[in-house]
Amino acid sequence: MPFLSYLWVGSRKTLEVDARIREQDRLLHERGEQHQFLSFYSTEAGIAFAQVLIDKKSNEIPAALKFAQLLDLQGTIVTGDAMHCQRKFVTMLMNEARADYCLAVKQNQGKLCKEIELCFSQTPVEHHHETKEVGHGRKERRLIEVLPGELLPKELLKVWLGLKEGCIVRQTSWRTEIRAGGKEEETTEKVRYFILEPN
Predict the structure, then answer these.
(1) What confidence tens digit (pLDDT) does each residue in 29-48 have?
(2) Which long-range contacts (CB under 8 A, 24 or more apart) does 8-11 make?
(3) Where, by residue number, does the polypeptide cross the bilayer (predicted)?
(4) Strand ranges (DSSP E) for 69-164?
(5) Which structural domains are found in the chain, ordered by start?
(6) How far apart are CA 186 and CA 189, in angstroms?
(7) Contact 141, 130 (CB under 8 A)
(8) By C-alpha distance, which of 170, 174, 190, 172 is closest to 119?
């Protein structure tokens, strides 16, 4: 997650947890034969730090929880999409793995997502960072806004370990596609939320 360098943790080792289909297994997957691998991917090195086949009768959520317990994650920041924004996963990272986390939040955690949205709508943001990029046929502007996690309701802070000391993040992106001849398409806006606990 590119904004981690802005949030004072750029020097920490970052591992992304994600389920991927190997290119050579894609045809089998399309036939309904599941060949998904769960990877802990080193964003600095650009390689999979560890990888395991996901059981056909399961999915990446329990696989990540079980696999992370076998790895040495101490001192790292584990990042993941909204599927991995699970209280059990966060608790295991904090208590057993001694790792920190940065996880996307969507409607699969409806109460948490709603309260984060509410915090940003009601609280002035002092910490923010903006970037602009032009290339690959598009223009993109990103605004990163950060608020203390302790603004969330106490009942959420009790079940989301580390969030009281951490922070919540809103990332707003505006993207404009540039067609041949320099014609610009209508700008689209995308808002994403994250919870972050960098100790």
Answers:
(1) 555 555 678 888 887 788 88
(2) 8/198, 9/77, 9/100, 9/198
(3) none
(4) 77-80, 100-105, 127-135, 138-148
(5) 1-104 (3.30.420.10), 106-198 (2.20.130.10)
(6) 10
(7) yes
(8) 170
DSSP assignment letter at 33: -
CB atoms within 10 A of CB 187: 12
pTM over 0.90: no
Which amino acid, 154? K
Angle (CA) 45 50 55, round 5°: 145
In one letter, which amino acid is 23?
A: E
| Distance in angstroms (rounded) separating the CA atoms of residues 72 and 98 | 9
| C-alpha to C-alpha distance for 21 and 26, rounded to whole angstroms | 6
Amino acid at 164: K
Locate 1 and state its tokens.
């997650």
Please, what is the average pLDDT of the chain? Answer: 86
What is the identity of the amino acid at 196? Answer: L
**Side-chain half-sphere of 172: how many Cα atoms within 13 Å?**
10
d(CA 168, CA 147): 5
